[in-house]
Amino acid sequence: MKINKVVLAYSGGLDTSVIIKWLKENYNCEVIAFYADIGQEEDIKAIQKKAIRTGASKFYNIDIKEEFVRDYVFPMLRANAVYEGAYLLGTSIARPLIAKKQIDVAEKEKADAVSHGATGKGNDQVRFELTYYALKPDIKVIAPWREWQFNSRQSLMDYAKRHNIPVTATKKKPYSTDKNLFHISYEGGILEDPWVEPPADMFTLTASPEKSPNKPLYINIKFKDGDPVAINGKKLSPSKLLKQLNDLAGRHGIGRVDIVENRFVGIKSRGVYETPGGTVLHIAHRAIESITMDREVMHLRDSLIPKYSELIYYGYWFSPERETLQGLIDKSQIGVTGTVRVKLYKGTCTVTGRKSSVSLYNPELATFESEKVYNQKDAEGFIKLNALRLKINSKSKIKK
Known about the structure:
The chain is α/β, with parallel strands linked by helices. The chain has helices at 14-27, 44-54, 65-78, 90-109, 124-135, 153-162, 238-251, 276-292, 295-314, 320-332, 363-366, 378-399; strands at 5-9, 30-37, 58-63, 113-115, 140-142, 176-179, 184-187, 217-224, 227-231, 234-235, 256-262, 268-274, 338-345, 348-355. The protein has three domains: 5-173, Rossmann fold, CATH 3.40.50; 177-355, Alpha-Beta Complex (Argininosuccinate synthetase, chain A, domain 2), CATH 3.90.1260.10; 371-399, no CATH class. The chain is built from twelve helices and 14 strands. A five-stranded parallel beta sheet has the order 3-2-1-4-5, sandwiched between helices. It has a five-stranded antiparallel beta sheet with strand order 10-9-8-13-14, covered by helices on one side. Helix 7 (238-251) crosses helix 8.
């Protein structure tokens, strides 16, 4: 395969640093390094310097934090997406946007190929490449982990040393991480044994619940049509709102999850995640829905959550089925408007109040005290009608 110019999704870590040199060596092509800023909070200048020094002809740094939260995280939260009952999809939701921007750079540079550092055993290779092909069907894809001779981090470090590629990785690094504005993930190394408890000093976004403040923190979150728009009465942009919630919830030890999940490729994998702000938003969003959503609309939407979450996890963000589901979900969110009060304390987020000017909750109907709105005798006919098929089924069984 003849390649003249390739755009590499570059992080500055061991894998992608080696890939720049490997691409030039094996494809004799120009390599452009593309870095997506989605809230990693890294030294961009140092990463750029490293990319150029390693052999990249150009370096693109694109700040996509606002777009990430507004157009990817918030639509996912409107759906209450959660994979296998626990994972809030922090890594999964970032990949399609990174890949989309990478394709934008490839088109601008008239590159004939794109490349990434995802391994051949994980989900990210699928997420990147499904997006590439959905947006630019004729693009060529180079996935070094599926081609090269390296089979371990040590072999990569040996190659980097031979070619004077500066890397910070060591043989003793106990796990790998991936961070964005929504979460941070930890996997591999010592975490590959699902019986081993994660080390206390591993976590970076959340305080240990045992060492978090002894006084609870109450905050109000305002929603409009399913999206959070303000904290304690102060309107904030999507990225700033999420960042503030990360700080508040992280301080109180909220958002840690330790799970063994099923990868798309068929492997079970242990992942540890910190999603402080996202956890609070997930809980608060369900609370505002409880007083503003019609029962049957809510139940229909809830039945779609596993499929919607699976589509994101598998990498089908730009698929027609995900977009169709999103349309239904977004329509269900019209009127999901109001304020939720939550209490943050010792690793827990508890809903302590919810209110809305368009609430479907009627105190006169809900009360157990005297009222004149609901005739309790009406329930008798309702019950008999719903019991009719059960009676018929029971009599049929007796005859049999």
